[in-house]
């Protein structure tokens, strides 16, 4: 990553002889005034020992005097009663005015402070604008953020440049920013109903994965603050206006705020922003903006009504009180619960920053709130402060050559409009529900920050100020304020996050399932593309590919995803405008090596195993007589008579077509038994050619070499609506070059006939074997491009990326796949993954570095890429075994499900016992 200088000379207060100027001048002035007032001028000599003391203190921490000032500012006198500095959510004196209770001086309740005075918010003056007590206006956005794990360096740097440009352009306006990154525990679930007990039970057990404490989420928020006043005089003049004039002025401020908001929102479009505002629920008005501010107060999610009342009185964060003791704060809630927090501040910065420098914090198993405020200053003020600080360093004993040289760089970049500057502050509040937990988690964060080269410290002296400085516009409580460049701020906030998919409003409703990202966030997995905010009932592209070698977790993943897809068979999940006859779901799995056998049977499905030489039960002449089937029947017969590469003459093609037309039109369906034999009876033989059309077709007649394939009395390949899941195994015939092409074609033809507007999915595992024939590929190619229009999806699975890419239609498969899923593959090559599957180099490197036993996969979609894992540990070993059938278990599984005297539930239980014992 490109690095930018962090001008460390501006990260500390202005110093004189090693002591911050402001407290030194203030203390010296007080001593001089006292000596003059008391007429004891010798008291002025105290300045020298005081100076030495102050210098010693500054050596420990240059912000020590600022911290002591804030400690005094947030001081309370009730610590002796509570054992900690305590701020209540309700002020006792305010209650006393309304209710005639006597003051209980023994407990000093009349002196108990409320944290209300530290709540800066005043009123909600528009759906998305809050005004504070100083008449500043603020609007907040929740930001999805941009992915970074798999994003190329060039794109990441582009995001930094965009952010830098935003903060530069706003440096000429009277605005400021508060950025928050909140990481917290979440519980997630997806509603699903299944008729099948096995599917229902495994689904319920799977979502036990996502109970409280197992998942976390990072939520990013950016608050824009507009101060309409140049100084306190301006604000005082506004306050003195009569109500009507003040109202008219306020309308002008709101209009200006809207301009700024629209401008910022447009500039942040790539980061996916959502403005927090008033919303309606069950006839009541709530505000997501106030809910966010309320969370900052108490660290708890609660709904907040949009009321016409002072915000500082009813935004209390669900708290009873806050208790500060040394370096820890205890949050006591109205419901009797409690939480603990510790605050971390940056004591000394690194010499450089880069985009995403704080990304390591996103992976910590810790709950926290990061606050980073930035108050841009005008160019002329920045230049002045840089020059003054440079001069002070030159004249002081602080002779760091590097820092002195950096001032020239800063002034040059400022002059060239490459950067702007602003007052910056950072804090991170770490939360836990136990005192031990908060200490352990704080140490994790400190270690992570130290690894980045940052010198950090626990907030203790001014802990209340650090806590309350999280609230937007509480500038006066910020403990450690440094002057940073817009590039530094852009790199520090980064707006990086992990993709989370989409939970609802997908083509078929809710997401298929939930996976976990590498930082333990939920990823809502979908196959369909996202084309709008609400795709429910639409027909976006949903085709997919799954690549992963044996043992990588691919088959388990496919089995589980198929099971999760079956929830869409529930009629309650369909849009209201879908006809009743289309409210159904059919899923077909073309299998190899019977890997899906147990899962399909346990899920209430039908599984067809085809053995070489055994009658298949196929009779293609039993299909419905329509143009589509007639064309497919012609193609099938052509495949039969050209298996050795023979070329059909026009006369031969005409013979086939005429024979098929005659049979299909002159014979009823019940009369088309042994269709191949019937066709041969209606074809003339060329006696001068031993390799004639009829001679080649006779090999497929009942009783001949391949008669077992298609010349059967009836056709048993059917897909009744009451069954949602079908499996067809091609293990034996796919390796037989004589029969694999026609059988693959026929199965694919019959399966794709089901595509009629219902929800439909076809998964072809080891697809390269099923699609070896060019005519079969052509059929698949056509469906790839058209299946979405009829509410279907088509999936391709393989252990070998190169096998799939060698298909003639490989390019179409890649182009027409909305989602590609890559598992571990130690044979992955650059050409296959980057050139073939269009992965980026970073994505390829990630796949290349997968560890087989981690069972991770990279999900690449047209709009995002993410590394996830499918954790099936909660469903039980026996259920995991059912998802993927091993070759050694096939015979036992077939015996269990062949028992006609047992119910499906009994068979599944017997299968579980079998796996438990094995």
From TrEMBL:
GO terms for molecular function: ATP binding. InterPro entries: CagE_TrbE_VirB (IPR004346), CagE_TrbE_VirB_cntrl_dom (IPR018145), P-loop_NTPase (IPR027417), P-loop_TraG (IPR043964), T4SS_component (IPR051162), T4SS_VirB3/TrbD/AvhB (IPR007792). The chain crosses the membrane at residues 14-37, 43-69. Residues 275-480 form the CagE TrbE VirB component of type IV transporter system central domain. Keywords: ATP-binding, Membrane, Nucleotide-binding, Transmembrane, Transmembrane helix, Virulence. The keyword Nucleotide-binding applies. One of its GO terms (cellular component) is membrane. Residues 543-849 form the TraG P-loop domain. The keyword Transmembrane helix applies. It is found in: Membrane. Its main location: membrane. NCBIfam families: VirB4_CagE (TIGR00929). Belongs to the TrbE/VirB4 family. This is Type IV secretion system protein VirB4. It comes from Halarcobacter mediterraneus.
């Amino acid at each position: 990553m490109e690095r930018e200088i962090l001008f460390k000379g501006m990260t500390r207060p202005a110093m004189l002889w090693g002591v911050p100027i402001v407290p030194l001048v203030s203390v010296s002035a007080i001593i001089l005034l006292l000596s003059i007032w008391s007429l004891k001028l010798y008291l002025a000599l105290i300045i020298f020992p005081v100076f030495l003391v102050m210098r010693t203190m500054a050596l420990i921490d240059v912000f020590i005097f600022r911290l002591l000032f804030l400690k005094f500012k947030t001081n309370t006198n009730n610590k002796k009663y509570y054992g900690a500095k305590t701020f209540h959510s309700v002020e006792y004196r305010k209650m006393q005015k309304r209710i005639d209770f006597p003051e209980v001086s023994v407990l000093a309740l009349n002196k108990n402070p409320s944290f209300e005075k530290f709540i800066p918010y005043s009123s909600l003056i528009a759906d998305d604008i809050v005004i504070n007590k100083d008449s500043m206006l603020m609007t907040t956005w929740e930001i999805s953020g941009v992915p970074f794990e798999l994003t190329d360096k060039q794109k990441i740097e582009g995001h930094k440049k965009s952010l830098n440009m935003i903060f530069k352009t706003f440096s000429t306006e009277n605005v400021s920013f508060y950025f928050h990154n909140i990481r917290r525990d979440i519980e997630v679930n997806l509603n699903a109903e299944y008729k099948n007990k096995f599917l229902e039970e495994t689904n319920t057990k799977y979502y036990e994965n996502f109970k409280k404490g197992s998942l976390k989420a990072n939520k990013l928020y950016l608050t824009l603050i507009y101060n309409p006043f140049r100084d306190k005089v301006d604000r005082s003049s506004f306050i003195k206006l009569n109500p009507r004039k003040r109202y008219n002025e306020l309308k002008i401020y709101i209009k200006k705020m809207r301009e700024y908001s629209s401008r910022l929102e447009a500039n942040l479009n790539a980061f996916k922003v959502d403005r927090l505002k008033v919303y309606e629920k069950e006839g009541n008005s709530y505000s997501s903006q106030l809910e966010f501010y309320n969370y900052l107060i108490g660290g708890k999610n609660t709904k907040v009504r949009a009321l016409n009342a002072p915000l500082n009185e009813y935004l209390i964060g669900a708290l009873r009180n806050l208790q500060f003791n040394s370096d820890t704060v205890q949050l006591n809630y109205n419901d009797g619960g409690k939480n603990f927090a510790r605050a971390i501040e940056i004591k000394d910065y690194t010499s450089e920053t880069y985009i995403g420098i704080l990304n390591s914090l996103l992976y910590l198993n810790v709950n926290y709130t990061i606050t980073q405020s930035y108050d841009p200053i005008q160019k002329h003020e920045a230049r002045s402060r840089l020059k003054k600080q440079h001069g002070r360093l030159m004249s002081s004993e602080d002779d760091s050559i590097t820092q002195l040289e950096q001032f020239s760089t800063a002034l040059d970049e400022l002059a060239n409009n490459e950067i702007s500057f602003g007052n910056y502050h950072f804090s991170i509040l770490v939360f836990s529900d136990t005192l031990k937990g908060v200490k352990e988690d704080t140490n994790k964060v400190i270690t992570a920050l130290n690894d980045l080269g940052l010198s950090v410290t626990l907030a203790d002296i001014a802990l209340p100020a650090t806590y309350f400085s999280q609230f937007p516009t509480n500038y006066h409580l910020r403990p450690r304020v440094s002057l940073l460049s817009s590039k530094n701020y852009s790199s520090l906030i980064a707006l990086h996050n992990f993709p989370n998919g989409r939970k609802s409003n997908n083509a078929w409703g809710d997401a298929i399932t939930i996976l976990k990202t590498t930082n333990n966030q939920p990823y809502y997995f979908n196959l369909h593309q996202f084309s709008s905010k609400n795709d429910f009932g639409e027909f976006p592209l949903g085709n997919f590919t799954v690549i992963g070698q044996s043992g990588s977790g691919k088959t388990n993943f496919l089995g589980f995803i198929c099971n999760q897809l079956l929830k869409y068979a529930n009629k309650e999940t369909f849009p209201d405008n879908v006809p009743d006859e289309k409210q159904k779901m059919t899923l077909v799995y073309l299998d190899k090596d019977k890997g899906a056998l147990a899962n399909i049977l346990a899920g209430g499905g039908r599984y067809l195993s085809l053995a070489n030489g055994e009658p298949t039960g196929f009779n293609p002449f039993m299909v419905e007589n329509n143009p589509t089937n007639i064309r497919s029947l012609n193609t099938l017969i052509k495949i039969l008579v050209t298996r050795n590469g023979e070329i059909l003459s026009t006369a031969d093609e005409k013979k086939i077509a005429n024979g098929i037309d005659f049979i299909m039109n002159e014979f009823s369906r019940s009369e088309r038994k042994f269709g191949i034999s019937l066709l041969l009876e209606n074809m003339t033989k060329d006696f001068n050619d031993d390799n004639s059309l009829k001679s080649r077709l006779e090999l497929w007649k009942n009783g001949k070499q391949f008669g077992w394939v298609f010349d059967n009395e009836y056709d048993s390949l059917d897909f009744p609506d009451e069954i949602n899941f079908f499996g067809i195994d091609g293990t034996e015939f796919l390796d037989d070059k004589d029969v694999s092409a026609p059988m693959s074609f026929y199965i694919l033809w019959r399966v794709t006939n089901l595509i009629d507007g219902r929800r439909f999915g076809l998964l072809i595992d080891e697809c390269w074997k099923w699609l070896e024939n060019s005519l079969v590929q052509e059929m698949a190619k056509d469906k790839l491009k058209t299946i979405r229009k009829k509410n279907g999806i088509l999936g391709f699975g393989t252990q070998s990326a190169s096998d799939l890419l060698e298909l003639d239609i490989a390019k179409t498969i890649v182009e027409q796949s909305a989602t590609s899923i890559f598992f571990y593959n130690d044979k992955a090559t650059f050409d296959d993954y980057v050139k073939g599957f269009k992965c980026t180099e970073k994505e390829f490197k990630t796949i290349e570095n997968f560890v087989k036993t981690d069972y991770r996969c990279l999900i690449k979609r047209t709009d995002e890429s993410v590394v996830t894992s499918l954790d099936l540990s909660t469903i039980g070993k026996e259920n995991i075994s059912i998802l993927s059938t091993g070759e050694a278990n096939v015979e036992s599984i077939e015996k269990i499900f062949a028992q006609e005297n047992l119910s499906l539930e009994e068979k599944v239980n017997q299968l579980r016992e079998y796996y438990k014992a094995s």
